[in-house]
Specification:
The protein folds into four domains: 147 residues, BirA Bifunctional Protein, domain 2 (2-Layer Sandwich); 105 residues, no CATH class; 56 residues; 43 residues, no CATH class. The chain starts with a strand and ends in a 7-residue tail after the last strand. It has a five-stranded antiparallel beta sheet, with helices on both faces. A three-stranded antiparallel beta sheet has the order 6-7-8. The chain is elongated. Helix 1 packs antiparallel against helix 2, helix 9 packs parallel to helix 11 and helix 10 runs antiparallel to helix 11. The chain has eleven helices and twelve strands. By secondary structure, it is α+β, with helices and mostly antiparallel strands.
Length: 380
């Protein structure tokens, strides 16, 4: 891999790469005097004067090899690979030095070059990191070197600044995304680790097209942290997690300002309908439908069953009250229409009717001797 930096003065970088405590060894040099450190510095500075308008003229690239190749990479291979790298990166016709260090377990070298070439032209750095990553992979395959398996093998202790923060976010996402079922849960998991999350919208619409993670004042697009953490790929994994969990709402979700709004899953609705059909004894069951048709359940199964039971109790109570009122009115009307005639031979408080023998099963005589219709089926 290659780590690219740029600067404004050759003095600091030349002194760093040539210091004795690094076990520095000069492998190659071109266009500079190599009598001592100061000679190298003065040579770089002299050519940089060809373009006094350019302030960032120092190019510095650290080429690092896997520890798996420590026995394979000798000075000759390192120099050949560095030459191939510079050619592919269009770092040509300019001054440079190539210095190998021995202060780490893995093999690595430092390339310092002048961005002002021998003809006074500025060597472009456009998309240099993207181009460099592609070239490093090509050279790894070409020279039969070890290909690292993703970011899991990166030495976190060696990282500094933005690289360290980016890998901190990466490590949290690796654990949090598989354990989250929607964007809200993921956001809460990230907040517990000091990471905030926001969305990128398409123009002035509410269409989400990207996600940004922030920590310690540094912002990274999800795809820049790792390709699997782009908005579309995280969304796909969250929906997959939700589908695998039958006790949570389903995967039909929409994101608004970082929050998630979702509809209850079909299976949960179906459970409620099954309970209604099995437990509803009243023709007033439509009231129960209206009472809880907008109820949403996000808790456990016991709370869900309690809510369904409460809705049905409310429906039964309402039906009972209505039946009592209707039954009382109907009974009063019937009592007036069906009051029997009392003969003159009967005393004022007589207790019987002259038609007792004609009563059928639908009528009865109350305590006042009045003939009344039985109200069958009016009460449960």
């Amino acid at each position: 891999m290659a780590k690219i930096t740029k600067g404004r003065d050759f003095g600091g970088v030349v002194r760093y790469v040539t210091q004795d405590k690094k076990g520095a060894k000069l492998l190659d040099a071109k266009g500079v005097l190599t009598n001592d450190k100061q000679s190298i510095i003065d040579s770089f500075r002299l050519q940089a004067q060809l373009r006094p308008d350019v302030r960032v003229m120092v190019g510095h690239i650290s080429l690092d090899f896997s520890i798996e190749d420590v026995d394979k990479v000798d000075d000759n291979m390192m120099q050949r690979l560095a030459d191939d790298y510079m050619r592919r990166m269009h770092i040509q016709n300019t001054q440079y030095i190539l210095v190998r260090h021995y202060d780490r377990k893995h093999s690595h070298c430092h390339l310092v070059f002048n961005r002002i070439d021998n003809d006074g032209h500025l060597i472009s750095d456009k998309n240099d990191r993207v181009r460099s990553a592609k070239i490093c992979k090509e050279l790894t395959l070409k020279y039969g070197l070890y290909m690292a398996k993703g970011k899991d093998h990166v030495n976190r202790e060696r990282l500094r600044g933005a690289d360290a923060v980016k890998y901190q976010i990466y490590d949290v996402l690796v654990k949090a995304v598989p354990q989250s079922r929607d964007w809200w849960e993921l956001e809460m998991a990230l907040k517990r680790q000091g990471i905030s999350m926001s969305f990128i919208y398409r123009g002035s619409t509410t269409d989400v097209q990207g996600v940004v993670f922030e920590k310690d004042g540094l912002h990274f697009n999800g795809s820049k942290i790792d390709r699997r953490f782009s908005f579309s790929k995280i969304s796909a994994e969250l929906e997959k997690n939700a589908r695998q969990d039958s006790y949570r709402p389903g995967a039909s979700r929409e994101v608004y300002d970082g929050r998630v709004e979702y509809e209850p899953s079909k299976s949960r609705r179906q459970q409620l309908e099954d309970i209604r059909r099995e437990t509803s004894p009243s023709p007033m069951s439509s009231y129960a439908d209206d009472a809880d048709s907008t109820t949403r359940f996000d808790s456990d199964d016991s709370a869900f069953l309690d809510a369904a039971s409460d809705a049905l109790d409310a429906a039964n109570t309402a039906a009972s009250v209505v039946n009592d009122v209707v039954g009382g009115v109907v009974g009063s009307v019937l009592s007036v229409m069906d009051t029997p005639t009392v003969t003159s031979g009967e005393g004022n408080g007589g207790g019987g009717s002259s038609h007792d023998e004609e009563l059928d099963d639908d009528y009865y005589i109350d305590e006042h001797g009045k003939r009344r219709r039985k109200r069958r089926g009016m009460h449960r």
